Amino acid sequence: MVLVVALAALSLVLVACSQSTPAASATPAASATPAASATPAASATPAASATPAASGASGYPVQVYFSKHSDGNPAAVFPVARTSPTLDVATYAMQQLIAGPTAAESAVGYYTTLGGWLPGASNCSGPDFTLTLNRKGTTPEQGTATLTFCRWVLLGGDLSGARISAQIDATLTQFPTIQKVVILTPQGDCFDDLSGQNRCLR
Q: Is the pTM of this model over 0.85?
C-alpha cells in the first residue's frame, strides 16, 4: 500500500516537471514609425494666360490709321483702336478703314476719303477688296500683302491717292507677317501709279 502511494506521488512530480514553463511572450516589436509622407512637389504654376489688351473686351485689338484734317502731310496717319471679333484681323482692320471714323473720331479731325469713293458694283461678288498674303501681285513674295480693290476708287485730288495709300499701308503693316503692301486696282494695275508702268509690281 505504501509502495502504491509513493509511486503515485512520483508520477505527479514527473508530470509537473515535464510541463515546460511557457516562454515569455515576445514583446511585440514597436511598430515602425511611418515614414513622414512626402510633401507633394509644388504643382507647376501654369503659364499665365494672355491678358486681354482691353479689360472685358472679347476679340483681338487692332488699329486703324486715318488722316487728320489738322495735318497737311499726306503721308501722316494716326491710329484709332478697334477690336476684331475674329482672327482675320487684317481684313477686319481694312473693313474698318473703309467704314471710316466714328462720329466722335470725326469730331476731332480723323478722316478718310476711301469709303465714300468706292462706287459701282463689286467684281468680287460683294466685297470691296481682296487681300492675299505673301504675294506681290501674282508673284509669291514672303512678307508682302497684295490688296486688290473690287470697285473703282475715285480720287478727289492730287494727294488723295497718297493719303489712301498711307492709310492702307500703316493699317496692314501693323501686323508682323506683313512688311510690305501692294495696292492694285480692279484691273490689276498699281493704285495711284500715274506713270502707267506698274512700278509697285517690280
A: no
Displacement of CA 25 from its chain's centroid (Å):
74
**What pLDDT tens digit does each residue of the chain (202 aa) get?**
333 333 333 333 333 333 433 333 333 333 333 333 332 333 222 222 222 344 345 899 999 999 999 999 999 999 999 999 999 999 999 999 999 999 999 999 999 989 777 888 899 999 999 999 999 999 999 999 999 999 998 887 779 999 999 999 999 999 999 999 999 999 999 999 989 899 999 9
8-state DSSP, 190: B
Phi, then psi, of 181 in degrees rounded to 5: -125, 135
Question: Per-residue DSSP letters for 104-141?
Answer: HHHHTTEE-SSGGG--S--TTSS-SEEEEEEEETTEEE
